[in-house]
Automatic annotation (TrEMBL):
Underlying gene: ECI1
InterPro entries tied to this protein: ClpP/crotonase-like_dom_sf, Enoyl-CoA_hyd/isom_CS, Enoyl-CoA_hydra/iso
Enzyme Commission number(s): 5.3.3.8
Pathway participation: Lipid metabolism; fatty acid beta-oxidation
CDD domains given in the database record: crotonase-like
Subcellular location: Mitochondrion matrix
Main location: mitochondrion
A GO biological process held by the record: fatty acid beta-oxidation
Protein's name in the database: Enoyl-CoA delta isomerase 1, mitochondrial
Annotated organism of origin: Lonchura striata (white-rumped munia)
Family classification: Belongs to the enoyl-CoA hydratase/isomerase family.
Keyword Nucleotide-binding tagged: no
GO cellular component, one term: mitochondrial matrix
Reaction(s) catalysed by this chain's protein: (3Z)-octenoyl-CoA = (2E)-octenoyl-CoA; (3Z)-hexenoyl-CoA = (2E)-hexenoyl-CoA; (3Z)-dodecenoyl-CoA = (2E)-dodecenoyl-CoA; (2E)-tetradecenoyl-CoA = (3Z)-tetradecenoyl-CoA
Length: 309
């Protein structure tokens, strides 16, 4: 199905951020999961669905879904990717058998390269509107999710990729100093919107966020740990095992208590975007339509290509 059609469908379905929905207290009561499953073993019984860019497998016995980004070369967050992402989250959220999701990448060395820059270059106002609505939708769903969300960051994760990780409940990163993470928008000559910033501040605090945002810093994994941008580092081969163990720990608590606490911590930030969604889209369009911004984005893309050759 074309991305535009999928995106329109989300728009028509009037999806509300989860902070505005009835919480899922009525989910099937489950006993706390046992010890984490050993790595490499297939999770069973398993329901899986796979779209073009994201693969999802739900282990119904543990209530844990594994979501893998698989959009080469760099898992950039295109309109199509974002639409699949939101739909996948919605499917899991509405599935009573699912209580948590681990988000990772199926590609080596890259978690996600952030928003697809080509979606912000030389496109129509209609396209920018649709794209930005899809970015908002993804964040509202992920940040407002009632599920436990664990990011297993197995590669670099700039800008929008970092936002995905920041929006989860817990971040585990592969301890490779070549992998970096951060909101580097300023390096592209663009500005992270207020809700990117709010999400960042909620994780690392105001001072660290301010410095990192102004400098557009990409932090190598060990530095990201020191700043609290990720919660722990583990050797790459242990990443999924650790993510499963962390998930089991979080799922050992009663859903309703954890979910109410999460809502209490995140609601103000979510509500702020919900209240200003249309204004935020207008701001994005007016910003990205500026010739100077278009020039910066084109130059950045050229720099990426030159660096390669
Ligand atoms: C305006 C309001 C604010 C909007 C907020 C914006 C948020 C964002 O997320 S903006 C995007 C920020 N992202 C980045 O700065 C990352 C840029 N990419 C990289 O640094 C690197 O590509 C990498 C570290 C992610 C991977 O490096 P490497 O493995 O060496 O791969 P290449 O650099 O050779 O890239 C392969 C291929 O992919 C293209 N590409 C990379 N990132 C993006 C992207 N974000 N959007 C679109 N395309 C991207 C890159 O140009 C290469 O293309 P080809 O040369 O055609 O193969």
């Amino acid at each position: 199905m074309a991305a535009a059609t999928l995106a329109r469908r989300i728009g028509r379905s009037g999806v509300l951020p989860l902070c505005c929905r009835l919480p899922a207290w009525d989910r099937a009561a489950r006993p706390p999961p046992g010890p984490a499953q050993p790595p490499g073993l297939p999770l069973a019984p398993c329901r899986s669905f796979s779209n073009n860019k994201i693969q999802v497998e739900l282990d119904e016995s543990s209530g844990v879904a594994m979501m893998k980004f698989k959009s080469p070369p760099v898992n950039s967050l295109s309109l199509e990717f974002l639409t699949e992402f939101s739909i996948s989250l919605e499917k899991l959220e509405n599935n009573k058998a699912c209580r948590g999701v681990i988000i990772t990448s199926a590609l080596p060395k890259i978690f996600s390269s952030g928003l697809d820059i080509t979606e912000m270059c030389g496109k129509s106002i209609e396209h920018y509107t649709e794209f930005w609505r899809a970015v908002q939708e993804m964040w509202l769903r992920l940040y407002g999710s009632n599920m436990v969300t664990v990011a297993a960051v197995n590669g670099s994760s700039p800008a929008g990729g970092c936002l995905v990780a920041l929006s989860c409940d817990y971040r585990i990163m592969a301890e490779n100093p070549k992998f970096s993470i951060g909101l580097n928008e300023a390096q592209l000559g663009i500005v992270a919107p207020f809700w990117f910033k709010d999400t960042f501040v909620n994780v690392v605090g105001h001072r660290i966020a301010e410095r990192s945002l102004q400098l557009g810093s990409l932090h190598p994994a060990p530095e990201a740990l020191k700043l609290g941008l990720v919660d722990e580092l583990v050797p790459e081969e242990k990443l999924m095992e650790k993510a499963a163990a962390v998930m089991a720990q979080w799922l050992a608590l009663p859903d309703h208590a954890r979910q109410l606490t999460k809502t209490m911590m995140r609601k103000a930030v979510l509500d702020r975007l919900v209240a200003h969604r249309e204004e935020d889209i207008k701001n994005f369009i007016s910003f990205v339509s500026k010739e100077s911004i278009q020039k910066s984005l084109r130059m950045y893309m050229e720099m990426l290509k030159k660096r390669k050759s």
